[in-house]
Write a structure and sequence with these properties.
Length: 122
C-alpha cells in the first residue's frame, strides 16, 4: 500500500506494510452459463493465489449453485472453520455466454493436473 501526503514528492514516497496478516490469500473468479434447453448449469473458474503469484484455472464443467466453490476449495485443500474469515474470496459472474465460460476455463494443455482437474499457471 502506498500512502501519499500532500507534502510528499515523487522522490519521497513512503511505503507502508499493511497491519496484521493478510486475510485473503486467494481470489476466485467464476463464470456460469445456464443451458436453458436442457436446464443444466455449467461453470469455469480462475483462482489467483495472491501470495504465490500463481493462477489455477478450473475448466468448463457441470455444476449448479455453489458447486464451483466446493470444487475449488477441495482441489486447493482449503479448510474453513466456522467463525473465522475465509482465506478465499469468490466473485461469481452469472448468465454468461457458453463461449465466454469455455474460454475462461482454458489453460495450456501441458499445465493440466489430471488428478486435481485444473490448469496451473505461473
Amino acid at each position: 500500500m502506498i500512502n501519499i501526503n500532500k507534502n510528499d514528492s515523487l522522490v519521497s514516497l513512503k511505503v507502508y506494510e499493511p497491519k496484521g496478516e493478510r486475510q485473503i490469500k486467494y481470489i476466485g473468479h467464476t463464470k456460469t452459463w445456464r443451458d436453458k434447453v436442457n436446464g443444466n448449469t455449467y461453470w469455469s473458474c480462475r483462482v489467483e493465489d495472491i501470495e504465490e503469484d500463481k493462477m489455477y484455472i478450473f475448466p468448463f464443467q457441470y455444476g449448479y449453485e455453489n458447486q464451483s466453490e466446493h470444487t475449488v476449495k477441495d482441489a486447493l485443500n482449503i479448510k474453513e472453520v466456522i467463525g473465522e474469515k475465509s482465506i478465499i474470496k469468490f466473485i461469481k459472474q452469472v448468465d454468461c455466454k457458453n463461449k465466454e465460460v469455455k474460454q475462461h476455463g482454458q489453460g495450456q494443455e501441458e499445465n493440466y493436473n489430471s488428478e486435481l482437474k485444473y490448469y496451473y499457471q505461473d
